[in-house]
Amino acid sequence: MKQKSWHLDRRTLLKSMGVTMALPWLECMSWGANKPVARKRFFGGFFAYGVPMPADDAPDRLENGWFPVGTGKNYVTPEMHKSIMPMRDKITFLSGLSHPSMRTTSAHKGADYFLTGANILKTYDKQTISIDQHVAQTLGQDTRFQSMVLSSFGGVNRPYRSSTLSFDRAGRPIPALNNPAEIFRRMFGASTADERNALASRGSVIDEILSEAKDLNRRLGASDQRKMDEYLSSVREVEKMTERAVQWQGTPKAKVDAKSLDLSVNVTAPREYLTAMYDLMALAFQTDTTRVASFQTACEEGGLTDRFPSALGLGNSSHKLSHEKKNYGDVAKYIAFLNEMHANFIKKLDSIQEGNSTLLDNTLCFYGCATSKTHRATNYPIILSGGKNMGFQHGTHLNYSDNVPLSNLFVTISNQLSQPTEKFADSTADITEVLG
Description:
alpha/beta, Alkaline Phosphatase, subunit A, 3 domains, about 10% strand, disordered N terminus
């Protein structure tokens, strides 16, 4: 087909702009076979301390409960899901799933095993890779950042109180970012001279460490060699990250106007803060800065993040609210607030066009908690959304017996988004009901 004067070739436009951001799909790009390829993306989100669960015959079941009433397409949702129900045909509620090895845990370890399914009941040494990092090994090969790891608390906190959802191939926690201004700067801001110098120095230090360790390893006993191998694995991970950062140094970052973002917010203003964090993830996906993100809205014993209910004028901490056994009104308001923040993120993704689809159609969003009630590590509350172009179909409530591992869903996610696999953590099969 002959190109007309008003037709744009996407590669030519990218070259002329001198940037590598993913341009929004324009009608004038559809003139020939050179159409944009849909990129697969994954989001994993978590909130702490479980959900209110009035008895099925309680008068406030639909007012204050979390889990839908009924299954299949004819389910009814409690009031706290009002914000996301305009997206009913693009979401799926799942109940009854859990990680079998962790069902007897104290349940404050939720973030540590939510995306990994690892058996860390007695020892943290058995921690394994999280599903976001598993798919990032495939989806993150062509982006500046292999993944984006965020939480409202930041860092890694400590074992069994992690403030990160993401764990690498060796089961090591990946530090989460929590400062909106710093996140924006890393994604879209100019690199400083100090950062470039530090990157060069880091490469030299790593080379020296690996050289000395190789010589030392020859003189160690078997036990010490195993420990050294674990250490060297960590060093090599840093080496790969450094090489990746160096390779991207010469590639301009996406140009994004920050005027619509309030990057000065922090956790003392929960509504504004969570909005900014979700907006940053949407921008990261839209500009193809990354294709994988995880976000822990608040962690167990997370300092000021435990005070998020103050956004609604509620006096108690989220932890104290979660232990309410009779009057679920306040905790229901708080969870409804978190649901609203997540719903706004889903709606935003769905408002961004990509070809004949939306960003949500190309993004699978997995969101929930690792407890039902605050200390009951079974029957996780889960919402799955998006991913239409990856084969996911929605509009139902799927209720499983508690014998079904959540990792079965992770097998399906891996098969649809990245590498075909028959096993992830404690999985026993896959879950096909979420597919079209």
